[in-house]
Amino acid sequence: MIRRLLTIATQEFRLARRNLWVVLATVALALFAAALGFLGAGQGAALQADVLSLTAASLSTLSVYLIPLIALLMSYDAFSGEVERGTLALTLATPARRWELFAAKFAAQALAVGLAVTFGFTIAGAAIGAAYGASAPGLFAWVRLVGSGFALGAVFVAVGMTLSALSGRTATAAAYAIGFWLLLVVLYDLALLGGVIAAGDGLFTTRIFPWLVLANPADAFRLYNLAAFGSAPVSGVDGLAHTMPFPPEAALAALGLWLAALLALGAQLTRRIKP
Amino acid sequence: MSETILSVEALSLGYGRLRVLEGVTLTVAPGERVALLGHNGAGKSTLFKAILGFLPPVIGGIRVLGHAPGFDAARIAVNYLPETVAFPRALTGAEVLRYFSGLRRAPRTAVPELLARVGLAEAAGRPVGSYSKGMRQRLGLAQALIGAPRLLLLDEPTSGLDPISRRDFYEVIAEAAGRGASVLLSSHGLEEIEHRTDRVAILSRGRLVADGTLEGLARRAALPARIRVTAREGQADRLQAKVGGTRFNGCHVDLTCPPEETLPTVARLAGLSSLVSDVDLHRPGLADLYRHFSDLAPEEARP
């Protein structure tokens, strides 16, 4: 079992590297982070925050869009693509179990996305730190960002793979992936914001809204990162990060729950795949 | 314990309400090469997928070396080459084989030898994306030979290959069979399997309509031989009056006669040398046999 898991994961990671996924994702994330840091650096003095912390705060909002997109793009045809190319039948004709295939592919792709996040943000963070100086809170903010970015990437790799196992066809899986990205990353926030505006200070805003924020992995990621800033200049849904009735670590737990649930669901769905 | 590698017993299965296989019974002995023939949609690929354990039988059963499909012992014993397979273009041939060796618990050190056996030793380090169609198919065959399987399932392995590649392909298959591997392969190329397989099974609309050696099938079908007689100039009418048959193209007379009368008929024609200039004997080939058995209505079909 261990040998099979390692064989599949190694192959999958090698493919991610050969197809330049890791490199391209790293470059994209590093460029975005560096652009935010250097272009936004001027506001640092006015807001009495160091550039590193400030960039980490804006980057956590940008990452909510970018990291899920990268993770979904990488994973959406994990199974459907192999069904169409005919290689899945070959793999499943060996003693490899379906859950092993799911687990090993997930591990490799989550690692690939995670490494891209780590390298991309570390490169940009180092450049910003070198240019504007680094403070302890700023460094911690980046460590949190990279760590939770790893988790966010893993959750959305699991989303993409589950959708891939569910749909069986690459085109359908792509549509699902884009749909889920829009739903979880864009529309969910708009709906929540609309709800808060409509409800004012009512029951929805104080009791239900915080849990709804926690229930979305993308929002949970942002919540965790923003709650750590004492004076981050954030507004909208993010501005409410400080009024949550639970500690920021609860957001990490939410990501963990999502991951566990998706892995269980996805591994179960692989039984329905017709190779 | 048993002398059967594969036994398929009264197998019926289908997708939803559609029955694809109906009461198929088939056995394959060690070292035997069996060709599975059938029109498109006859159920060949479905039978392969059932043997691999991807599709559960509705009625009947399958045993691979006595094990049910899908169990490890059966999965190790069987290896497979699907009709169409596209390995990741970014990986090299050696990497593809190492991957499947890892999944089958086969030694990775055997990979270079496998590649050499299918003539890909030099391309081992090149990405699959740069391979020609024939090379990719040979890589697929090398993949199917990993771990010295007891049963090779090859789904139309030579479709789209040129005659030379085809011959090489069958040589590798014969070599594997010589080592004791059984082979069950499907094909549309009727001529190519004629001298390269031991037994022929014909599927038609999900039923097995014939199963036996080519000689046995030919005897059972008792298909008539066709004799085309070329008449000497101006003698065609007299020839037809003497031997019967139908006229063709003015100077030919076509005769059909049952297998046991072929020789007497030819002898008689030889005695008519004043009328006959040439005799062309056409014995029923595999294509005729195939057509004969495929066209049998399901009621007439005998397994």
Q: Calculate the terminal CA-CA distance of chain A, rounded to whole Å.
A: 21 Å
Helix content of chain B: 25-40%
Task: Give me the side-by-side strand order of the main sheet of chain B.
Answer: 5-6-7-3-8-9
Query: What is the terminal-to-terminal distance of chain B?
Result: 26 Å
Give the beta-strand count of chain B. 13
Question: Explain this structure to me?
Answer:
The complex is a heterodimer of chains A (275) and B (303). Chain A has 275 residues and is mainly α. Chain A has one domain (2-272). Chain A has helices spanning 2-18, 21-40, 43-47, 51-75, 80-85, 87-93, 98-132, 136-167, 170-199, 203-215, 217-227, 249-269. In chain A, helix 4 packs across helix 9 and helix 8 (136-167) packs antiparallel against helix 11. Chain B has two domains: 6-88 and 150-219, Rossmann fold; 224-283, Alpha-Beta Plaits (2-Layer Sandwich). Chain B has eleven helices and 13 strands. Chain B has helices at residues 44-51, 72-77, 93-103, 111-117, 133-144, 163-178, 190-194, 214-221, 236-243, 262-270, 286-295, and strands at residues 6-15, 18-28, 33-38, 59-64, 78-81, 151-155, 182-186, 199-204, 207-212, 225-231, 246-248, 252-257, 276-282. In chain B, the strands form three sheets. Chain B has a six-stranded mixed β-sheet, sandwiched between helices. Chain B has a four-stranded antiparallel β-sheet with strand order 11-12-10-13, with helices on one face. The longest helix of chain B is centred in the middle third of the chain and has 16 residues, at 163-178. Chain B is elongated, with a radius of gyration of 24 Å. Chains A and B meet through helix 1 and helix 6 of A and helix 2, strand 5 and helix 3 of B.
Provide a compact summary of the structure.
The complex is a heterodimer of chains A (275) and B (303). With 275 residues, chain A is mostly helical. Chain A contains 12 helices and no strands.
